[in-house]
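Exercise (ungraded).
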Amino acid sequence: MTEGYKGIWVFVEQRKGKAAPISWELHGIGADLSKTLGVELCSVVIGDNVSHLCDESFSYGAVRTYLVDDQIFRDYRTEPYYRTICNLVNKYKPEILLFGSTGMGKDLSGAVAAELRTGITEGCTELSIGDNRRLLMTRPTYGGNIMATIITDKTMPQIASVRQRAVPMPEKDISHKGDVIKEAVAIREEEIGVKVLEVIDSSKETGGSIDITNAEIIIGGGRGVGVAETFQSLQELADELGGKVATSRAAVEDGLAPMNIWVGQSGITVRPKVYFACGISGAIQHLAGMRDSDVIIAINYDRQAPIFEVSTYGIEGDCTQVIPAMTAYIRELKAKKSA
Amino acid sequence: MLVIVCIKEVPDAAYINISPENGLLIRQGVPSNVNPFDVYALEEAIKLKEQHGFRVTTICMGPGSAENTLKKAIAMGVDEAALLSDPSFSGSDTMSTGVILSAAIRKLAEKEEVGLVICGKQTTDGATGLVGPGIATHLKYSQLTLVDQIVSVDPQEKKIKVRRTLDGYTEVIESRLPAVITVVPQINHPREPTVRMQMLAEKAQIPQWHNSDLNLPVENIGRQGSATRVQKIFSRAMPESEIIGDGISDPDGAARQLVDTLINNNILSI
């Protein structure tokens, strides 16, 4: 079942012709793997008016792009996308297929793997090549305490989805060119049972939006914040940094913060670039929701609190004093800069 | 119209650790419960039952002890439950789990038309979120993940309208039925079972379905049917925390030092 499969493919995730950064991050790790295996790095571009993404894909290292460009792909819908990818895989037989571990990437890769009856490892943070050219896929599991290295050993292709910002963004080289293979659409609109009636870009909404899932900077406030009013000081820091305020279950239970910003094992999972844990002791349930953040900063008066065990930087102190001091200093720096 | 909720019993993932002696997972003494994300799926199905009179069945694959998880679903208000339990199911990865759950749904569909399958967005142990898409693909049902609102269901026209947010884009989607939806916690506030319902659930007989009921080839299920293998598990490396300044006696100085450190290391830009 594994004969004749060769090469590495990256799915280029896009919305309205704009590629998600993870697509190019995948080109970086994909190029490394392709060198180890001595095979080509190719990409798959599917969408409506997306041919410009082929050149972008070449500039990030792909030597060939399979392009399926049609208005049927204007909105993201699972069925036309997964069927198209499966058709391409069955025709060209890549040995490795990489997706981003995003909402779209998970929705799509799960369907592709099930249809192709092959293995998939979701949310990888590391990929490498092991014995017999097998892809070693490493991911955090069980709430993030444990890492597992997983292989797909009997079937092809080996599918992995990779977390955003887990691997470095490669250098762009616009002189690097490749071949475009245009493929026809093999699915008709009447066959698709799903219609997208409306799309709202909620990341562009200002004011009312409290979706913290995609925030790059999060100020998390816990029980140590003390009173609901002090959450306002977290909000002020978040506003200065362009971030969002989140909370822990303990603070929700104390009535300090609303439930819709609760980060934790059975709340919201976040993975920002920076997570400030303010007055959060670091109960395991909370850690499960945020420990994959790139940088964690603990501000807590209890030096023994478990939050310090997962943080890169820490301040031993009262967050109700430290946070306003940070905000004031950042405003001072901004004023100096604009002067 | 039948609504099926797929649930799983999970160990409290946060308490799972690796034995320093033998490098294996320590499961002993770790409490198990219904996957927290599945409770929202159950609540949404019961709401549909109350609004439209649909029947709700819940299925769970697991060992005999997972019966307790199904009893919790009955206490919340589902009509029927079945435990999919067989030695040949154990060790299933997301693919063989999808194959087994799909077979159980097909079996239920022989007796009554299935309109909707509802799953939680992921489990708290494996946390892949791949089983819902797997079921949809195997059954050729429509697939709608990360739903935060069911806008409407029309069993006559066989249509459902939902809202979901995918990577910052909120979409209103219309789909034909049957469909598989996975739901996020924002969708509802799950009810607490009443004492009376808990007592009734305690007495409920939960039927067990074995592979003799599903007739799946053993090479497609369990460890044998899994496409992935765990090659190695290891504890996560912890970062060394760097303590900045003296936050107790000089919070202002520590705050300034932290901001400077973050800017100098390109973690923040002002």
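Further reading is listed at the end of the chapter. For now, observe: Residues 225 and 323 of chain A are 10 Å apart (CA to CA). Chain A has two domains: 8-191, 217-338.
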